[in-house]
Amino acid sequence: MEQTADLEIFVVTTPGLEPALCAEMQEKGFAKPVIAKGGVTTHGPWSEVWRANLELRGGARVLARIGSFRAMHLAQLDKRARKFPWGQVLRPDVPVRVEASCNKSRIYHAGAAAQRIAKAIAEELGAPITKDAELVLKARIDDDLCTFSIDTSGEALHKRGYKEAVNKAPMRENLAAMFLRQCGYNGTEPVVDPMCGSGTFVIEAAEMAAGLHPGRARSFAFEQLASFDPAAWASLRGTATAADTPLRFHGSDRDAGAVKMSTANAERASVGGITTFRAHAISDLEPPEGPPGLVIVNPPYGGRIGDTRQLYGLYGAFGKTMLNRFKGWRVGVITNEAALAKVTELPFLPTLPPVSHGGLPVTLYRTGVLGGG
Ligand SMILES: C[S@@+](CC[C@H](N)C(=O)[O-])C[C@H]1O[C@@H](n2cnc3c(N)ncnc32)[C@H](O)[C@@H]1O
Questions:
Q1: pLDDT band at residue 243, thresholds of 50, 70 and 90?
Q2: Helix (H, G, I), strand (E, B), or coil: what is residue 38?
Q3: pTM
């Protein structure tokens, strides 16, 4: 596979966020993004695979499809897998793990299929096959068509590389970024999160305003591939420099430990200069000086942390603070219970479909600009 090969690229995301990811990909210039179940498809050379990993905030991982052939039975799979040009993508010195799945195919035993493919790679290319290899080759056999994809991300993309400290129930960065986008946030207004936990929303928003790429500080599985070009990657990654922004991003939490954690996470993400974190309860929240923007929050969820009656009080107090003190701002609340959103008494717009957050379906409730009345 040469550098210029036109690969099918599949960016995996959390179900429910495909339209938001697709919009982000359009904005960032990826070729003809098309929504599929659980992700968005685009295509391009290896440099677009790298760029997807580096720049997309909404992705969970990036898969590159490297080839396919028909296989009606295991002997044919074995024979064709042995002829596959593995050396164009994999390196003989880098361990690899093979995962297979079968659907509506004559080959129905995924374990046996994976074993044949692994053996072909080991014997034809010489790459070590290990159970805990970081590099994963995925084989999907659908309607007797075997398709190979490489997971080019490695560690999931919500791991931006700055969050050492996490609080209870942290929001995944890719979900946080897409919820910000669904609230109309595009990096040009201040953001406040008054129950900031480990600071995810505030840091994502600040990075977007500063024009920082989410993947600038981490490594990726594609660096272990035969197609990798360190000099070209260095120049692509080098485009991420923090732009000056007069905007400020504010987090608060009643838990002083959470505030300390958020501050440290923001420093590591190099947005410490444009973020502030303070320890106080929601009832003490005042709008920051300057223009209005977006308040986004995911309060404790029903049935997960805390007791429901207390939560009603908390959501009620949040709604009151917004309605009394945040005129001119928009509000986004992420929660798992419609009844909790309702007690805020905020004028929510129609909701989008729920999104699974750690197995829990959560919904974003959004307002327009809060009025003066
Ligand atoms: C679900 S967590 C938020 C997680 C956060 N979005 C993150 O990504 O880490 C809810 C947070 O609300 C905070 N909290 C609960 N009651 C509060 C109150 N009355 N005032 C301020 N913060 C509160 C908790 O300390 C906790 O950090």
A1: confident
A2: coil
A3: 0.94
